[in-house]
Task: structure prediction
Amino acid sequence: MSLTKLQQDIRQLLKEKKAILLAHYYQRDEIQEIADILGDSLALSMEAARTNAEVLIFAGVHFMAESASILSPGKTVLLPRPDAGCPLADMITPEALGAAKKEHPGAAVVTYINSSAAIKAMSDVCCTSANAVKVIRSLGDVKEILMIPDGNLARYVAGQTDRKIIPWEGYCPVHHFLSAEQVRRTKEKHPRATFAAHPECRQEVLRLADYVGSTTGIIRYAGEEHVREMIVGTEHGIFYQLRKQYPEKIFIPASDQMTCEDMKKITLADIKTALTEMKNVVKVPEDVRIPAKKALERMLAIS
Ligand code: 13P
Ligand code: SF4
Result:
């Protein structure tokens, strides 16, 4: 693979600053190409917890950099674009969660990693789309579970377990607005294709899926022998990996509207600037970090 001058400059800067570049599968292709660690939210948080690098630069969205800072407070965590947020994470506030906890005393609070540090700090345990079912199954004798903030993920998990789950009505706009009708139309055009979807999609969409899982799960599923042609119900950044890993297979977007604007905010130029100037540091205050770390570490122990 031949790198552009800008990509080479970034690789050089990473070496000089003893830094690693972590990137989510939804990032731009040219960023994925030069990442040290590429993964779904679970893999990125695991790496953030165990790396020896002094500086972590995150090509992802704010909650990912924040989770890295919570887990590794001694390291410098950079987010090249501080305005790269997650609309789903913004769909719950500490005040609203406080009120819900009062309404459901004794409920366990299971929080999707797509949430702010303040929300994690009020939670019992975190989860990602890769381990949500496992996390719920690991909970002992709790009467009910408040699962926040993604209602679609909560409903999907409720269907996989016999626990009483109260879903929060937040959603990821990228996945939520994929309709069953769009999927049916794409299936009609590609009758031999299997359909893989992310659990942030609505139930009516998940019912049409042959496979439901995180981005890593979808990439793994695409590698199965019987999958020759696959309709993809998640953000378009995943196509870079799918086509790179399985060039002989055919991948079709379930809709052409599944692009996360926040994930795409970060450019190579932003990464170079952040590294050069060591700017856009993400740091979580200790009174929030300590309880948030407990919820994240409890999840990592289960994963
Ligand atoms: P995963 O990384 O768990 O697949 O989640 C996708 C997502 O929406 C991240 O923002
Ligand atoms: Fe948030 Fe959805 Fe974008 Fe992921 S894809 S960062 S959940 S808005």
About this structure: The chain has a mean pLDDT of 97. The domain at 178-253 is CATH 3.40.50.10800 (Rossmann fold). The radius of gyration is 19 Å. The CA atoms of residues 52 and 169 lie 38 Å apart.
